[in-house]
């Protein structure tokens, strides 16, 4: 099964009690602790993107979630229990109208705002059929705004109706189109945000007289989000400036600022009592803020930037995924904990958020096999000047548990560095870089016998080339005894003493990627070309073992097995083939894995080897494959064994479709079934093993929904007694 790892947090809500924060994340709803920042529950059940979440007005411990899969689900978010599923038409986002106990949904395909009546039923799955249209011509963005017009419509049972208009700006470059809307909780006032950075407060729209509006202005860019506090005393706004602005409602000239929050603010949520604010950002971060405008907690997901310039790599020490993070940084992200560990500042310069400004970017990163050294490459291209390149070597520091800068090489090559890799040999500490300048260079630690010495630094040991051709890729063998460098259409193989051992023939096309086989397949060298060829050479005979015409966009080797993964492009989609170089048939294949080309992938070693895995998933026993899609979604593969383990841990309470859904009624129903069995003389007593569902329900049911202890005790004791008929 292909599992997406959600990167965006499109919708955030703070729920009662204030220690919980809920956010829509991909196909699930995550429940975080606002104090510890840990994920308490992961509410899984939707099969498509979760578009909105909202609190149940009649029960503050429950929350509704709405998804593009066409269902609305009711959860007990404190215990992570699914209570009810209500399928209906395809929704986009929604909000609860507490006074009507109805669900207001924006339908994507029809662009309508409708009220969906939620029927009261004890069944777990109930179809919501009663729908009433509130507004029929909603814009595709999901708000009742149309360029420079906003409509105010009343829900069923009210007669509120009005329209707000704004004329097109006469000034050159004026942009006053609506971007967001927020309603005052107590007064007849609506706040609207605009592209020109202004906020307008509309009043008297519920009166017979003409409406009026006043203007607030601080943002220099578009206002992305607005939110009133529960009492309506303050208005919160955010935009691309990464500054939370708190406007005093009665004193519009007074405002408070909380700057430097990270990425652009995309959403704002406020707790029901107004003690906590919450902002979500474009870099996949949630910031929890106290009402005194002070940051109290940060929940950081996988940092989502404009693109990934570095390859996906695994830190050998922490087993974290390492790639581009904040501008000028590398992020270390724990795949097992689904949490950002830390950001490492590579560029070590203040990043200026200004469009068109040329600044240093991290484009390459590589670790040695022991995780003692990290190599990075940063580039900057300025108009009318040459390319600036810095090669940096970072040493791991045991005290700080992070990497410290050891050596900086300015202009290590005369042109762009295309690839680099460390030698896996334990006898030496060596880095190889290749560039479009036609050379590859070997960098050695000056005193590799004592890598922690203060005077230890890196220097260039060898410069190589081949007939003035430009190298494009390089790779070390598993033991470090061979180095393969691809020079356009020629593959060269070098020894550690920099002797050219052999060159390998290649069909027409430049070498795109090279990869040595592992373990029993270490005698093979595989390469891909721009002419859609996948070739395998036998290093013992120095001849071509086999080749196949396929457009491989990425070739990745599993460091713990002989398996290799090849991502192939065909008809606008990517296919995956997992194979061993010495076997003719692939171990696993999947067509139309995702749209576009896969350019980044990595095998992440598992903490524990999987056992009793299905035959077609044996290649996932030791490592797990992660890859980035064209739309910057991080995807991975999971086995049925892992899914069963996750279901067992997240669904401690098994809810049967044939019985009521509450834990109390579930226990009571089991008790009645036992009583009926005891009254029947022909009924056989059902043995209750130690791991039975009844005992698990008794042990894992939350305390606040359990019946009295006397009732539970008597029921449990009766289940252990042997009836008189059975004794006879």
Report on the architecture of this protein.
The chain is mainly beta and 728 residues long. The longest helix is centred in the C-terminal third of the chain and has 17 residues, at 663-679. Strand 18 and strand 19 (212-217) form a beta hairpin. It is built from 5 helices and 54 strands. A 4-stranded antiparallel beta sheet has the order 1-54-53-52, with no helix packed on it. The chain is globular and about 90 Å long. WD repeats lie at residues 43-85, 171-202, 216-247.
In what order do the strands lie side by side in the largest sheet?
Answer: 1-54-53-52
What Rg, in angstroms, do the CA atoms define?
31 Å
The class by helix and strand makeup works out as mainly beta
Tally of DSSP helical segments: 5
Whole-number mean pLDDT: 80
The low-pLDDT segments are 1-10, 95-110, 140-146, 650-661, 681-691
The largest pleated sheet is described as: 4 strands, antiparallel
**What is the β-strand count?**
54
Percent strand equals 35-45%
What is the terminal-to-terminal distance? 53 Å
What's a concise summary of this model?
WD repeats lie at residues 43-85, 171-202, 216-247. With 728 residues, the chain is mainly β.
Core attributes:
728 residues; mainly beta; four-stranded antiparallel β-sheet; 54 strands
């Amino acid at each position: 099964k292909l599992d997406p790892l959600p990167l965006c947090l499109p919708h955030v809500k703070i729920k009662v009690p204030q220690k919980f924060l809920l956010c829509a994340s991909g196909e699930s709803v995550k429940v975080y602790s606002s104090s510890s920042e840990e994920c308490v529950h992961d509410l899984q059940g939707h099969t498509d993107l979760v578009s909105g979440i909202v609190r149940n007005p009649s029960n503050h411990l429950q929350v509704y979630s709405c998804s593009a899969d066409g269902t609305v689900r009711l959860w007990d978010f404190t215990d992570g229990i699914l209570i009810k599923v209500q399928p209906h038409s395809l929704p986009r986002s929604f909000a609860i109208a507490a006074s009507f106990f109805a669900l207001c949904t924006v339908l994507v395909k029809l662009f309508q705002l409708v009220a969906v009546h939620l029927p009261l039923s004890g069944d777990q799955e109930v179809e919501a059929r009663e729908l009433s249209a509130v507004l029929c011509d909603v814009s595709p963005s999901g708000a009742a705004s149309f360029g420079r017009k906003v409509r105010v419509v009343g829900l069923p049972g009210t007669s509120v109706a009005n329209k707000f208009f704004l004329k097109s700006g006469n000034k050159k470059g004026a942009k006053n189109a609506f971007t967001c809307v927020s309603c005052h909780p107590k007064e007849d006032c609506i706040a609207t945000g605009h592209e020109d950075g202004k906020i307008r407060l509309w009043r008297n729209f519920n009166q017979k007289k003409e409406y009026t509006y006043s203007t607030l202005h601080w943002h220099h860019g578009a206002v992305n989000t607005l939110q009133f506090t529960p009492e309506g005393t303050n208005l919160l706004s955010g935009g691309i400036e990464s500054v939370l602005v708190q406007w005093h409602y009665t004193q519009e000239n007074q405002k408070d600022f909380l700057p430097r929050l990270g990425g652009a603010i995309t959403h704002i949520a406020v707790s029901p009592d107004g003690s906590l604010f919450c902002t979500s950002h474009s870099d996949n971060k949630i910031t929890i803020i106290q009402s005194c405008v002070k940051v109290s907690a940060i929940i950081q997901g996988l940092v989502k930037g404009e693109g990934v310039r570095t390859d996906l790599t695994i830190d050998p020490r922490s087993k974290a995924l390492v790639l581009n993070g904040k501008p000028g940084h590398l992020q270390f992200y724990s795949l097992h904990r689904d949490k950002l560990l830390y950001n490492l500042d590579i560029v070590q310069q203040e990043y200026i958020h200004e469009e068109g400004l040329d600044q240093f970017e991290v484009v390459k990163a590589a670790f040695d096999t022991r995780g003692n050294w990290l190599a990075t490459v940063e580039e900057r291209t300025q108009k009318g000047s040459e390319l600036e390149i810095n090669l940096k070597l970072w040493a791991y520091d045991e005290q700080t548990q992070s990497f410290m800068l050891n050596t900086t090489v300015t202009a290590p090559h005369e042109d762009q560095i295309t690839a680099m890799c460390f030698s896996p040999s334990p006898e030496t500490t060596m880095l190889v870089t290749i560039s479009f300048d036609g050379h590859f260079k070997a960098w050695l630690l000056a005193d590799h016998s004592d890598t922690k010495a203060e005077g230890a630094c890196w220097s260039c040991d060898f410069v190589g080339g081949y007939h003035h051709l430009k190298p494009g890729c390089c790779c070390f063998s598993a033991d470090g005894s061979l180095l393969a460098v691809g020079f356009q259409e020629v593959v060269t193989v070098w020894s550690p003493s920099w002797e050219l051992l052999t060159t390998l023939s290649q069909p027409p096309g430049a070498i795109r990627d090279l990869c040595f086989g592992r373990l029993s397949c270490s005698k093979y060298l595989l390469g891909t070309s721009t002419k859609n060829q996948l070739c395998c050479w036998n290093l013992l005979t120095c001849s071509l073992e086999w080749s196949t015409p396929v457009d491989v966009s990425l070739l990745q080797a599993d460091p713990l097995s002989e398996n290799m993964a090849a991502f192939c492009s065909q008809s606008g989609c990517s296919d995956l083939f997992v194979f061993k170089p010495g076997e003719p048939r692939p171990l696993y294949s999947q067509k139309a894995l995702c749209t576009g080309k896969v350019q980044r992938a990595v095998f992440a070693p598992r903490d524990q080897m999987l056992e009793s895995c299905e035959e077609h998933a044996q290649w996932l026993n030791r490592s797990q494959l992660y890859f980035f899609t064209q739309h910057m979604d991080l995807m991975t593969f999971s086995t049925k064994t892992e899914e069963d383990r996750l279901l067992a841990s997240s669904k401690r309470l098994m809810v049967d479709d044939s019985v009521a859904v509450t834990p109390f009624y579930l226990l009571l129903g089991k008790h009645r079934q036992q009583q009926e069995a005891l009254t029947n003389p022909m009924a056989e007593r059902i043995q209750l093993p130690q791991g039975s569902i009844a005992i698990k329900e008794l042990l894992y049911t939350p305390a606040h929904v359990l019946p009295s202890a006397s009732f539970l005790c008597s029921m449990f004791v009766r289940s252990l007694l042997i009836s008189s008929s059975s004794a006879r």
